[in-house]
Amino acid sequence: MTDHALRLLRQDHRLAELAALPFGFDLDRAAHGHVEEVRLASGGPLETVAGDDTGGTYFVCADGSVLYADSEGAAGIIGSSVDEALELVIGLPGWRGCTRLSSDDGEEKILACVAETEDEIREYHGIDEERAELRAALGLPERSSVELVGRLRAALLSTEPDFVLLNADEGCAYDRLGPAGPSLWETVLAAGRADLAGLREGDHTAWREVAEDPVRRRIALRAAQFDRAEGDLELLRHLLRHEARSSMTDELRLAAVLVGLRGDTGDLPLLHEIRETDFDTACGLGGMPESGCERGRVATVGRGSST
After folding, report:
1. Which of 110, 146, 148, 178 has the fewest CB neighbours in a 10 Å radius?
2. Which residues span the domain enclosing 238?
3. Are 162 and 42 in contact (CB under 8 A)?
4. For residue 151, which of 110, 113, 207, 189 has the smallest C-alpha distance?
5. Tens digit of pLDDT for each residue in 285-299?
6. What are 143-165's pLDDT values in tens digits?
7. In terms of DSSP bridges, do strands 74-79 and 175-176 run parallel, antiparallel, or are they unpaired?
8. Residue finishing a domain among 176, 195, 221
9. 38: number of CA atoms within 13 Å, CB side?
10. H or E element at residue 59
11. Could you give the CA distance from residue 243 to residue 68 in angstroms, rounded to a whole number?
12. For residue 206, is it within any domain?
């Protein structure tokens, strides 16, 4: 993490004024906070360091990455450090109009977009001499617009899953700034799929570590929900037994359903044992077939669950 440039801005009023106008990185706006209370879905800390005149806010995350949130409900990582973020906002003052560009668009299109946004800024403010002065004073390298657009895109794509921003009151997620990347559920399930593969290979370490880690266990169960294999029954029983230690959860119901869908009446004693773990589990797994039922009825365990 590097914040050398941020320290210089805080020490030099002239430089801070230049960063605020025309480059939209206003340290004084940090005191006002964002337009609403927000938090990271991961639970990580956020430090407000600056804002802009559109109601947007710059936050520094625990690893030093800079998260920008606008006033319309969108957010994204724009740099791995404050220095990198300042390279962007100074070198590409119209960066918010470039969030959907990539190197695939070609140099001509990128330069045309940058020229258009910067010409609009020049109608009201000088930026060329100011940019040169700030870069020199803060020790920031001069990068081409094409390179900055590429760095911006890479940063934005790193937003999920660790830096998803939520409205603190309602828990609603902000939209991601910039390009559409892999669906968040695919990103989250990737780790579960890897653990599921290890379980299927009979890796004894995986069987122990995944089963004993609540997060890994539940994501592996979600992966098994969407990727079912004939040989999974024993590992599903294993995960079911361990999930029961957490009392009633959505994943416990899912595990019971995945076991029950195999239709093996030999699993009824296990399912009944799990159901009797505690009162909440007994209620959550109600409607379970009793011993002696026909084979097909075992699959009614957890009826109404999403599988």
Report:
1. 146
2. 184-300
3. yes
4. 110
5. 887 776 655 555 555
6. 999 999 999 999 999 998 889 99
7. parallel
8. 176
9. 28
10. strand 57-61
11. 38
12. yes
